[in-house]
Amino acid sequence: MTEFSAVKESLAHQAIELPSWAFGNSGTRFKVFGQPGVPRTPEEKIADAAQVHRYTGIAPTVALHIPWDAVDDYAKLAEYAAEQGVRVGAINSNVFQDDDYRLGSVTNPDPAVRRKALDHLLACVDVMDATGSRDLKLWFSDGTNYPGQDDIRARQDRLAEALEAVYARLGDDQRFLLEYKLFEPAFYTTDLPDWGTAYAHCLKLGDKAQVVVDTGHHAPGTNIEFIVAFLLRENKLGGFDFNSRFYADDDLMVGSADPFQLFRIMYEVVRGGGYDPAAGVAFMLDQCHNIEPKIPGQIRSVLNVQEATAKALLVDADALASAQAAGDVLGANAALMDAYNTDVRPMLAELRAEQGLDPDPMAAFARSGYTERVAAERVGGRQAGWGA
Amino acid sequence: MTEFSAVKESLAHQAIELPSWAFGNSGTRFKVFGQPGVPRTPEEKIADAAQVHRYTGIAPTVALHIPWDAVDDYAKLAEYAAEQGVRVGAINSNVFQDDDYRLGSVTNPDPAVRRKALDHLLACVDVMDATGSRDLKLWFSDGTNYPGQDDIRARQDRLAEALEAVYARLGDDQRFLLEYKLFEPAFYTTDLPDWGTAYAHCLKLGDKAQVVVDTGHHAPGTNIEFIVAFLLRENKLGGFDFNSRFYADDDLMVGSADPFQLFRIMYEVVRGGGYDPAAGVAFMLDQCHNIEPKIPGQIRSVLNVQEATAKALLVDADALASAQAAGDVLGANAALMDAYNTDVRPMLAELRAEQGLDPDPMAAFARSGYTERVAAERVGGRQAGWGA
Amino acid sequence: MTEFSAVKESLAHQAIELPSWAFGNSGTRFKVFGQPGVPRTPEEKIADAAQVHRYTGIAPTVALHIPWDAVDDYAKLAEYAAEQGVRVGAINSNVFQDDDYRLGSVTNPDPAVRRKALDHLLACVDVMDATGSRDLKLWFSDGTNYPGQDDIRARQDRLAEALEAVYARLGDDQRFLLEYKLFEPAFYTTDLPDWGTAYAHCLKLGDKAQVVVDTGHHAPGTNIEFIVAFLLRENKLGGFDFNSRFYADDDLMVGSADPFQLFRIMYEVVRGGGYDPAAGVAFMLDQCHNIEPKIPGQIRSVLNVQEATAKALLVDADALASAQAAGDVLGANAALMDAYNTDVRPMLAELRAEQGLDPDPMAAFARSGYTERVAAERVGGRQAGWGA
Amino acid sequence: MTEFSAVKESLAHQAIELPSWAFGNSGTRFKVFGQPGVPRTPEEKIADAAQVHRYTGIAPTVALHIPWDAVDDYAKLAEYAAEQGVRVGAINSNVFQDDDYRLGSVTNPDPAVRRKALDHLLACVDVMDATGSRDLKLWFSDGTNYPGQDDIRARQDRLAEALEAVYARLGDDQRFLLEYKLFEPAFYTTDLPDWGTAYAHCLKLGDKAQVVVDTGHHAPGTNIEFIVAFLLRENKLGGFDFNSRFYADDDLMVGSADPFQLFRIMYEVVRGGGYDPAAGVAFMLDQCHNIEPKIPGQIRSVLNVQEATAKALLVDADALASAQAAGDVLGANAALMDAYNTDVRPMLAELRAEQGLDPDPMAAFARSGYTERVAAERVGGRQAGWGA
């Protein structure tokens, strides 16, 4: 196995992006459980996200969701973030929560609705211009619930048209990350159901269109690390929306349902060059802390990604490659498992200490009194959630 | 194939129960799209349900959901239903929408929450006493999201305790129907995840505890008709919550995703004696019309069940049995498929005509002007939905 | 709905290709059950396939599998087929049954094994030259069973190299159809696990590389008709391997597990222009008749595809399009379902009568005495199966 | 976390049963790859199994499969095992490989076939009498491939009848373990598809009928540890057939696909009292080493179970219980994960050293030269496999 000292530097520059919406309330169609101290404004979300970075040291950016994080002055919001010690990351578009989008947004049979949706996407690029964001994340809930409801192929034509228009609007240092999802909220067809569809659209558009892999958006049994390896080989992996699932798009904390899968994904990222900052892969969380407290939930998630990354970096590439070349099935598997079975927590605690961080971020945050303080301060107003 | 005339009588006495909540707004965690004319009160829901019965002739009862349909005077509500030409059916309990239920209801680690949940269930039996309902439907969203979150076995103990208390409260002509569900809203464990768990609990309690099969609550690949056949053999099939799914608990219109599966289920019902009214199997819909209009959505669903039932009744039992006994794989399959491939719509139109109904319920309802009338009348107030 | 007379001509020219191996013995890893009268030679397989065409009129070609159908003189085999009234169709390569392929064929870490596998693929093109076949079907069982066993990306490089070499060898009127499969026999990674991977490779190679959709090769919940529509839009749908599944790659008779899905697939084929012979889409069966008799199993399958096609052609495209454009969810769904619910069997019987065929192919074949004759004649020798 | 010293004793008495058939050749329907040195006789399989025990110290018994391990003198075979340092464990019945079983064994529509199958099961109890085995493992491949093929309910009646007859034959210290499986080799219905069906049959029969959980036999998404916890609560968990899967019944090495799941299962075993030898839970492997060498594959698997068990025993039960009682979602999850994230390999090496074993069983076996010796010695004869 690779020496820990050799991977320490790589770990030190890791950067995981937090989603502003993870700090707001979330839930299922059955119930959204509110929590005390939940932010009411984009600024309060950013302040909470900054706490995660403060204790982990590797969560320097916050993704925004428009219109949930809409403000009058984005430059000012970016300044506020900087004061908190973080930066604004990707801009996430939202074309699924207006009544007009009942039958779709950019693939809606009604051209007026398509135009409205496209205008929103273009406005998101305006926000990027103001915040200096590099990435526009595009997720479309578009699809149908019943066979025959709409024309599958015509919807692809409409999708392609919208993507072209957005692509044309991107600045030189901007790109979009196209997200796919098997199902939900559409229950028969989804217009971007799998990586292949997203890849095909991105390929036609060019280098500024990249695929984003949400780890909860696949059919049961899908081998996600294969997709990661394949997209890296094609230079089409733009980033990740990390989270965990046992069933569908459960949006649990990343690494909580299948930590071995997370390790395998991070191994393919490392092996394929995706961990090199120059590769431009964005490592983002996209989660719902429906029942657990949000800031600790995010800290736990960041630590889970960090631990998986440390294990992936520890893999002895030479031992692995030589076992693979020799057709030594058990030996090659063992080379990988040796790294996975290592307890990297002591090493990471040591790394944090060297960086002037508390070795135990969860405990340090708990001791800080932040939770109690915001619960007391954030009284009145409307707690942030998916609806606002 | 059996002659249609021979099955006509069976079809004439079919009874499908409608869920009051299908007439209110519903959606996903991403968005609930409101629709014009949606009911604002339990009475308006019942009035809408009565329309479905008026045009199909086989939807004589309406299930209530407490507290969504809570009223001061249930006897009066029952009278109102009678005036509309329908009756109150099963009472559906709801122990998932109070903030207290964040970590469960009857399986919550906190005894006070368990007590509160149990009290609600007992109060539902009071409603049954007032409405004359036979069935209490018990669905628990209880479960956990993370490994270790709570003790799986202790939660079973708590569940058993609550079920015993409810069972003890049931009157002589009352029973409860215990529902199971693979996942959602809980994403790691669900305390009643499968038919086996529901069956085991019901078996210990006695004849007044029966299992209800929601057709959308299974793992991918589950053979639902096998479960139906098995529960009928054990005298433990209390009823159905019908709906369709392509992926998870999509709650689409029954028969819209896999009409052949619905036929196979109805065939096992018929073959196992479950279609005989004396068997006490409740045929209920439980659906969400997220994007389609609700009353027509319910009519369509009732017709889908009726068509599947007609086909199931048409199966030539003798031809089937003799091919099965002979080990004639293709012959036995053909005997079943012959009925499935039959177009039963003309026969059912004829049946309706004989009963004084319009042969085409969808068209007749559309022509009636009801949709336009309620859209105009039901202005102001708050539309019914899952939250109220 | 479209008039039947209008679709009759389309139905008359339908062509479904039969797999020679469907007439041999097959089974699971647990047991292969032999059947009396099973062919022992490629010629006997072709003779059996010709029976299917004789009674259905729409199964004019037989796919060969090399080396299972290896003969010394392929031109002579093609002549034999012509005498039986059928033609040789696609050539199916087999690089999974030699001991050398334990760790893969064209993606094996050992270059010597890769070379051997490639040589076989090139030899299959030689067979095509001799038989006049247009299509080479490429299925690779290549993959790994354990994480770390081999390098995912390196295997893609090796795959690409092999595909390029085969592509370069194709004649002007030849093409290859690249098959993908989620899993089996590899249980961790498969080198061509989904349509996206096959598509990406084909796209780089050119027009003579097309994707083939085996209806049993997807993850649970995958919307196959979406893939069909997408590939047709991209001019990359080369053909189908039809069969049915409830669970994995069950290889049951097409249309037996989910006839509605088959209809939806055929509808997208028709809608996307794929039913036009000029589109070059190959409609092939790929099935295992493990427990049912093989020739009747193939006849039943051909009829199932024919019935689904008839229904797809009956869809009233104008009614559907106008309901879709109007956002009429139930109306659009009804337009599709109206065709599906139609019993097309009488119409197809009529079509057969007009073509001089028996209206009931299953009964006619049963009456013919062929089964009894070959059971008596084919004594001695070794029955064909997957191993030979 | 619990101190390692406290769990050492528990680990020392662990006992994992090996399947004789894991040492023979296996594969998929596509190909069985033979390996040099594979046993040709039951004795050679036992000798190989004894190697696994020799290096791990916790694999003292070997399960037999009848007729694959049929011998004239079972008492003598038991003696041979004792000489090798192991004992004969469970007897596995096989009613799926005779031609008669094409349409089922104990559920076959033909009473003569049912009788034959039952006779085999009873003969297996004779073998138990001779070997002193406690457990009869019953797995039935029975089911159907096509809707309508046979009567689901009648097959349950036949199954119940056979189970009763076997149960009646059991001696005082004997029991049977009833296995369930979602699918394969049957592809439409399986007569024992899930734990609920097996449980219901066992419950009626009595204490000597117990359910066995094969970890590869569930629908996607099934929470296996829930089933384990439930069956333990009901005193109906007879044992495990351990293996791993990514997709279906892949039969990979246990712990190789989802080591976290294996840990969760072992945690529920420990928590529910199933690790106490008095509970009578049999911990058996049931795997196929299709491409990797068999003895090392078994050693690796035994070690994987041992590591998961060590982690499960290390869980701090008090910390976990108090976090659960407090509704501390993240704290409770962390208590579990703390144990899982521990690297137990050094502790287990220490334990082995104390027991006089080599700390590294894989390396020690590799060094032993056994593999080379048997490859040289076992020449001629027919290698064992599923067919013999």
TrEMBL record, chains A, B, C, D:
GO terms for molecular function: L-rhamnose isomerase activity; metal ion binding. Keywords: Isomerase, Manganese, Metal-binding. InterPro entries: L-rhamnose_isomerase, Rhamnose_iso-rel, Xyl_isomerase-like_sf. GO terms for biological process: L-lyxose metabolic process; rhamnose catabolic process. It comes from the Bacteria. Transmembrane segments: none annotated. This is L-rhamnose isomerase/sugar isomerase. It comes from Actinorugispora endophytica.
